[in-house]
Design a protein that fits this description.
With 414 residues, the protein is an all-alpha fold. It is built from 17 helices and two strands. It comes from Lacihabitans soyangensis.
Length: 414
């Protein structure tokens, strides 16, 4: 995924769109006041006491977000500027998201897709893509971008860079861990015949990077607090639903009022969600694992190509969002980038349109930012159960694609 002179035109296009996007971005946050107050407090604390001491506040965000806040604080050193310009964090998030769109372009270019430089604009210009950052004021686009770039480097047979971006993804937001199994399989398929020394050489840069990320907190004696931050937010809000229009809206009248520690048949709702996620994801990953391990190749031979791997990623993200409890609406955001890239490769816009439509309905239905007031929507389009059915339809469609993939893999060895 090297940058060449051929990339000059798309780089200029995406840079121009970045500048325009920053100019047009709302200069306020209209959602997530509590998060914003935290970021203001943390930025001021980092400015006064140093990045290395931020975990003394018992913050529950992984380290790299604090590096973002440290940079933001350097640009805006006074408490007044931090308070008034906290919305400028959108620009940092958007910059990384532009990088992910450029990565999509490089994937399309490698596959000789016509108009590879312009097709990613269908992602970038998609309201479901920029809603999460520009309106909702969240930064899920960052760990998503790092994960997509990691997978791209893995499939381009650059395992060292793939692991580096995987480390960045997980250290930005722990949800990046859902991409670990598929990325590990992609890398293992590439390096399994390497010598032990070469494998160590591939692993070493990502290990060093992880140490460097944690080094300030090691030196301040807060390593344990930094490590705990990866999982401290898990279970903090033990409700079946936190705004995601997923399967639980088809089961309960209002899952946002149901504690997910409750359940039936000696299993909590949280456990059922995790079992569904891990079980379905495991089934999706199984053919790739068998291929990597060299098992049953006589009967099944799934190719590690972009279409197949991106399809697996889309399904894993959907399973994570649709079946788990404690899900926010913004946790659907990674689907846009991955399904968009898959749609460009397969020239299949229908599924991408449905994905974008469902995500927008969920984000707006939960936040009502464009609506302008907190009164519940009366139209059917924004009803949680209706949007949940759209997501379920999307899952069925992608599962159908996956079954076609498996059928072709079986035929190839027949």
């Amino acid at each position: 995924m090297q940058i060449t002179t051929k990339d000059l035109r798309p780089l200029l296009i995406y840079t121009a769109l970045f500048i325009i996007g920053c100019y047009l971005a709302p200069n306020i946050y209209v959602w997530g006041k509590n998060d914003r107050n935290c970021w203001i407090t943390w930025s001021n604390y980092i400015n006064h006491f140093g990045l290395q001491n931020v975990y003394k506040l018992e913050v529950d965000y992984p380290p790299i977000w604090h590096y973002f806040l440290w940079l933001f604080g350097k640009i805006n050193p006074s408490p007044e500027n931090i308070y008034l310009k906290i919305h400028h964090l959108k620009y940092l998030v958007f910059l990384v998201e532009i990088g992910s769109v450029f990565a999509v372009y490089k994937v399309l270019l490698a596959h000789k897709v016509k108009n590879a430089d312009l097709l990613p604009l269908l992602i970038l210009g998609n309201i479901a893509f920029w809603y999460n950052n520009f309106l909702f004021g969240q930064m899920d686009g960052v760990h998503t971008a790092f994960a997509f770039i990691s997978i791209s480097f893995g499939l381009f047979k650059k395992p060292t860079l793939s692991l580096i971006f995987l480390v960045l993804s997980i250290n930005f937001k722990f949800q990046g861990i859902i991409f670990l199994p598929i990325i590990a399989l992609v890398i293992f398929e590439d390096i399994k015949k390497y010598s032990f020394v070469k494998i160590l050489q591939i692993l070493l840069p990502s290990v060093i990077l992880q140490i460097l990320i944690l080094l300030p907190f090691i030196l301040s004696g807060d390593l344990k607090l930094a490590i705990n931050s990866f999982t401290d937010s898990v279970g903090r809000y033990p409700y079946v639903n936190m705004g995601a229009y997923n399967v639980w809206w088809l089961i309960f009248k209002n899952p946002q009022l149901v504690n997910d520690n409750l359940g039936i048949f000696n299993f909590s709702y949280n456990s059922y969600g995790l079992m569904a996620f891990f079980g379905l994801s495991g089934l999706i990953l199984l053919p790739f694992a068998l291929k990597s391990l060299g098992l049953f190749r006589k009967y099944l031979n799934v190719d590690f190509n972009f279409e197949n791997v991106l399809l697996a990623c889309v399904l894993i993200i959907l399973f994570f969002f649709y079946f788990n409890t404690q899900m926010h609406s913004r946790y659907s955001h990674p689907i846009v980038l991955f399904s968009g890239a898959l749609a460009m490769l397969r020239k299949d816009i229908v599924r991408f349109f449905l994905v974008s439509f469902a995500i927008f309905l969920n984000m707006e239905g939960a936040s009502k930012i464009l609506k302008g007031n907190i009164a519940e929507f009366e139209t059917i389009w924004f009803q949680p159960w209706f949007v949940s059915l759209i997501f379920l339809t999307i899952i069925v469609l992608y599962l159908y694609d996956y079954m076609v993939l498996i059928k072709k893999s079986l035929k190839s060895k027949a």
